[in-house]
Amino acid sequence: MKHHAKGAFDVTLQQLEAYNKNEGAGLGRMAIDKQFHGELDATSRGEMLHAGSAKGSGGYVAVERVTGTLGGRRGSFALQHNATMTNGVPSLNIIVVPGSGTGELAGLDGTMKIIIEAGGKHYYEFDYALDAG
Asked: I need a surface site. Which of 17, 59, 77, 112 has the fewest CB within 10 A?
């Protein structure tokens, strides 16, 4: 059965030392810490790699481990991000890493959308399903 969860979240990004420090590489690395509110009541920690040197264009990949409750079920799972921005037009794909669910969230499958309002307030919309078995 498919479910839909939504709510707000707070995010803190911290610059980390990049692995590739070549001048002009345009590569960076960040730590991600989030607090989800609403139907997903959880915290997450992860890491992001990003690239880009053109204004309004670039990309990032990230993986984060989410721990807490979703729809009243306790456990954890990993989210995988793949995003690009081309001349100000974003494309974002966030999925639950297959097989990453633990506890009552074992068998979790889903996709997440992030909405950022003017002023920087962050929201999520999470479409998910749980294995019956």
From this structure: 17
